[in-house]
Amino acid sequence: MVHSFVGNLGHLMIIIAFVSSASAAISYFLSSSDNPLKAGQWQLFARTSYFIHAAAVFATVFCLFHIITNYYYEYHYAWKVSDRNLSNIYKISSLWQDQEGSFLLWIFWNVVLGLVIIFTNRYWEAPVMTIFALVQAFLTSMILGVVIPGINLKIGSDPFILLRDVFHNDEIFRLNPNFVPADGTGLNPLLQNYWMAIHPPTLFLGFSTTLVPFAFCLAGLWKKRYTEWIRPALPWSLVSALALGTGILMGGYWAYETLNFGGFWNWDPVENASFVPWLTLVASYHTMISYRNSSTALKASVILIVATFILILYSTFLTRSGVLGDASVHSFTDLGLSGQLLIYLLTFLVLSVSLVIFRWKDLPKSAKEVSTYSREFWIFMGATTLCLMAFQVIVATSIPVFNEIIEFFGGIGNIAIPSDQVAFYSSKQLWFAIFLALFSGTGQFFWWKKIDKEKLKAALTYPFIITLILTGIVIIFGKVKEFSYILLLTASIYSVVANSSILIKLVKNNINLAGGAIAHIGIALMLIGILFSTGYSKVVSLNKSGFKIFADVEEEFNLENIVLFLNQSYRMEPYDLTYKGRRLDVKGIPGYVDYNNLAPTEDRTRAIALEDININGKAYAKKGDTVKIHPENVYFQVDYIDEKGRNFSLYPRIQINENMGNVASPDIKKYFAKDLYTHLNYAPYLNPEEEIEWSDPESHTVKLGERFFINDFVTILDKVERVEDVVALGLNESDLAVRASISIFGNDGTYTVEPLYVIRDRMLGRIPETLQELGIQIVFTKIHPSTNEFTFEVRTTQRDFIVLKAIQKPGINVLWTGTLVMMLGFIIAIRRRYLEFITMRNKGTELRS
Amino acid sequence: MKKSHIFLLVVIAIAVSVVISTAGDASSYVNFKTAKEMKQNGDDNMVHVVGELKKDGQGKVVGIKPSNDRLSFSFIMVDDSQQEQLVFYKEPVPADFTKSEKVVVIGNYYNETFVADKILLKCPSKYEETEIKPL
Prior knowledge:
The complex is a heterodimer of chains A (849) and B (135). By secondary structure, chain A is of the alpha+beta class. The two termini of chain A are 61 Å apart. Chain B is α+β, with helices and mostly antiparallel strands and 135 residues long. Chain B has 2 helices and 7 strands. Residues 125-135 of chain B have low confidence and may be disordered.
């Protein structure tokens, strides 16, 4: 049955949301009139419009969620992003997996922020909300899904399209228009990770919050309150920098820990598109506090805030219009929205730039030249460095756009992004980072505004000496040799030391002011962590056997991977490794369960336990119980013994994904000073169609104690005896079982195989024994009483093995620690600025700058 | 000259050098013929070539050959000037490879084979990319 009601309702709600945001924009515009009578008249209407808009957006989200949670796979969106097996958390995250849903997430955050603005501001509500509502009108138009009759122009792509409308030419819908697929195609297993639940919402909250300072800034210019907008905008700039920064870093951590992109940052155009606005946002915050303290850099603040918001729109355009199509690995596919996105971008570009130009000469300017010994000078230098970093990234990231522009004017655009993006960006950003660290260290000494040469010298002496000592130690122990790395290291350590010395003073006086120093320490630690983990990461899985792993792969692959055979110990300096076999993740059971103890069933998400499953003395499943598994995730247990004799196991994963190709995920052993990052590069028999290929059986007829050869291994038939306790084998009292005991002398020790010869209900039965370590299966086929001989059939196969790569990444914990420290700094600063704003507002001095 | 003027000049100088270095490091889109000529003239920079997979009369992709261990493969690509070329890639066949409507290979010539360092796929818009399997 096609549940058309909920979809129609959802679509209607989107249309209402669009219309009400447009009406809120117009009425807030009228309400921002300086004539109090007129303003008052329109305010109620404007608020009502916005509340209707908010309600409609919440209802849209609810409808889409309802469709996904009730398995209405007649809807294209639900069918595309979810399936019946998803756990609840992923049903929620599948909401934002595709374009329409991610727009909806963005719209949702904007609605929430708009409500906060309405309830926290008095004077600013009308002008700021005018801009908010206008943005909402543009955003909701992206998911409007309405065709304008006559010219046949489709505006937006809505998430409530029925599957049959998408595949209207498909045979199945011609036969039966009411066909509903039994299950969806599912959320990409790669995204089934808790990061999927928290990374996109955080990132989109970051995108959303850049609108707030932008709206305050434009409102200030428009209402000629050139300086008053800064105070309410300040805490929001910080919130935005925190949310966007956290979102970006979460993406980096996700990539590092799960996605096996090789590192935490790959300078992919999509990553860059969110990094660039963050840089300008942080720069804008610095010029704003500079203005708050000494009336300089107002113009710079205006430019940077406008630039940040425009860059967010630009990055949206880049990632969603398809223009990056052949430059990025993870941009969205083209939804046919490029035109609409371009209009959105150009509208706000023209609107804000003309407003800034129009008001430019009225903006108060600072008369005096900034002194080199002022805090403002150093802040400004830092902000400039951030802008240059942003500039360098955006120029190269925009290469596909330049091509489009050249082609638009009839030329041939044949510039391509640099082939080695990581090397290209890192080699340049490194130098900017050195200056950034220097400025962030020195700037903090100008806390007391007036400081001259002598005082500065006195203040800098100790930090300088401490820096040199610490750097010297790190260089010696970290074996840092490259000149540029030494500079970055020195600058970063200097920043940590300088900011720490400020912090110590602040802790004694007023901890509320410590946000800046703490955030700067965090950034400097991050730089040190990045320097070591990327500059000095070292492959430890060196293949010293002299044998090639695979014939037709690059030399590098054969040198930097090792082959581990099942249960066979391998020396990888300084570890001893043993591959212990495949494991599955069973719902409700901690850790992993041996693959061989689970038998598959018709339903691929269920398996039957072949043994009791006990973990730490607690019984989780009995033999024969059906348990729920995640069949696409196969883990490979590798046991390690490190140089101090400590044991640990790592479980790198391969995700079997027929649609997207198999994906390897790393497992990481965290040490204090380094990470041991391991992942598989190959394992046989992953896909269901790749069944184990056994050789043709080879027959051996031998006497007791006779030697023979299996796979070139010396083998002896030790004994043959009757099994007394047949019931333990699952047989009846009257049945008969004979067990042969065969020793095989392998390279790594002697193995004993005990195949059974069974007579059950007078029928012959043979229970084969498999020795996975050697890839041998033995069947006890015949007893020859006349000659005292026994016949065994032997089949062989490739032994189970894995190809593993292990990389040591020193100092990565410094990066993650730095991240947390930076966030803490932001939070302290947000609290301070927010309290400041509230105090002023409650005093009725909201408009004082 | 005021200090702010000097500062401005320095910023402009850095910005200009950023643009120049980007232009210098940028790769370029070429066809196979030009790529080969560049290599023969001693230019070892990697290039981007855009094209499609070779298809037979029925629109089926032909010429994809995985290596025995399935860790690498080669395929035949037709560039925008309809020149066919054997391309080798050191990674397994990417998912959706045969469904792609456009392929970009980034790499270089080694003798007669184009060795791709990276492959980017342009898949058809999402409303065409999957088909419904009746369950």
